[in-house]
Amino acid sequence: MKPTFYVTTPIYYVNDVPHIGHAYTTVAGDVLARYKRLMGFDVYFLTGSDEHGQKVEKAATTAGETPLELADRVVKRFQALWERLGISNNDFIRTTQERHKNGVSQIFKDILDKGDIYLGEYEDWYCTPCETFWTETQITEGRCPDCNRPVEKLKEESYFFRMSKYQEQLVAHIEANPDFIQPKSKRNEIISFIKEGLRDLSVSRTTFTWGIPVPGNDRHIIYVWFDALTNYITALGYPDESGNYGRYWPVDVHLIGKDILRFHAVYWPTFLMAAGLPLPKKVFAHGWWTVEGQKMSKSLQNVVEPNMLIDKYGVDAVRYFLLREVPFGLDGDFSHTALVQRINSDLANDVGNLLSRSTAMAVKYFGGILPAAAELAEIDQSLKQKTEEMVSIVDKFIDEMAFSKALQAIWEVISAGNKYIDETAPWALAKDPAQSERLATVMYCLLESQRITQCILSAFLPATSEKALASLGWKEAVSKEGLVWGGLTAGTIITKAEALFPRIEE
Question: What's the predicted TM-score (pTM) here?
Answer without folding.
Answer: 0.94
